[in-house]
Amino acid sequence: FHILFAGIKSKRLLLMLGAVSPEFRNKGLDAILGHRLLGSAIKKGFTKLDSHLIMKDNKRMRSEIERLDNFRLYKEYRIYRKML
Is the CB of residue 52 less than 8 Å from the CB of residue 18? Predict the structure, then answer.
């Protein structure tokens, strides 16, 4: 019950996965997808947005996110590998 109520009351939208197939890239589909997603989130009352994990070297996706108003990077993940 507590988790269900918190989900209804929350003002933070967490995006876990978003992608556009290679054959549809650079045709404006990503802009339409983003516009509709943000529009419906605002209508539902969300005021904060957390994006899915974006690789540090994914310049195209990072530049899209960093251009948004009030962008603030507050969390960064690292993955380390060690041969055993």
Answer: yes
Query: Phi and psi for 18 in degrees, rounded to 5?
Result: -155, 130
Question: Rounded to whole angstroms, how far apart are CA atoms 30 and 72?
Answer: 21
Extract the tokens encoding 17: 């996965």
Q: How far apart are CA 46 and CA 9, in angstroms?
A: 10
CB 65 within 8 A of CB 28: no
Question: Which pLDDT tens digit goes with each residue over 9-27?
Answer: 888 888 777 778 888 888 8
* pTM for this prediction: 0.59
